[in-house]
Amino acid sequence: MWRPGEGEPTALEAEGLRQLAEYFAGKRQAFDLPLDWGAGLHERVRRAMAAIPFGETRTYGALSRQVEAPAQAVGQACGANPLPILIPCHRVLGANTLGGFSAPGGVESKVWLLRHEGAAGLLI
Q1: How far apart, in whole angstroms, are the C-alpha atoms of residue 14 and residue 58?
Q2: Is there a catalytic annotation at residue 78?
Q3: Residue of 52, 77, 87, 89 with catalytic role
Q4: Coiled coil: which residue ranges (predicted)?
């Protein structure tokens, strides 16, 4: 994976960076990149998260019913998501809490992303 200061990114990395820049500039709501979805439950959960529209949220319980797995297992699969933002685990909430966020910045980053997407009404 490319990091600043480590030469030039590959074409795929450059495209991912371009799409992320568009997302943060408010010009993109979905990503169009070839992703490794994983396998089994992780794949089902990641695809379900990716299907949550920009600015909307789902609960771990709703995802658990959708993928037919216990909510705790869904939470663990969300926490194992290697591509936060691209696979929007920030859009998954607890029934009465924000839930966690394993990306850098933790829950504060999750709140920022939800506000960025206009889903902050639920935070009031």
Answers
A1: 30
A2: no
A3: 89
A4: none
- Please check the confidence at residue 104 and state whether its pLDDT lies above 90: no
- Name the phi and psi angles at 59, rounded to 5: -95, 160
Q: Which two tokens stand for residue 37?
A: 């979805």
Q: Which tens digit of pLDDT belongs to each residue from 51-66?
A: 999 999 999 999 999 9
Amino acid at 83: L
Summarize pLDDT for 19-52 with one digit per residue, the tens: 999 999 999 999 999 999 999 999 999 999 999 9
Quote the CA–CA distance of 84 and 23 in Å, as a whole number. Answer: 13
Pairing relation of β-strands 58-59 and 92-93? parallel
Domain ranges of the chain: 38-123
CATH for 38-123 is: 1.10.10.10
Contact in structure between 110 and 90 (CB atoms under 8 Å): yes
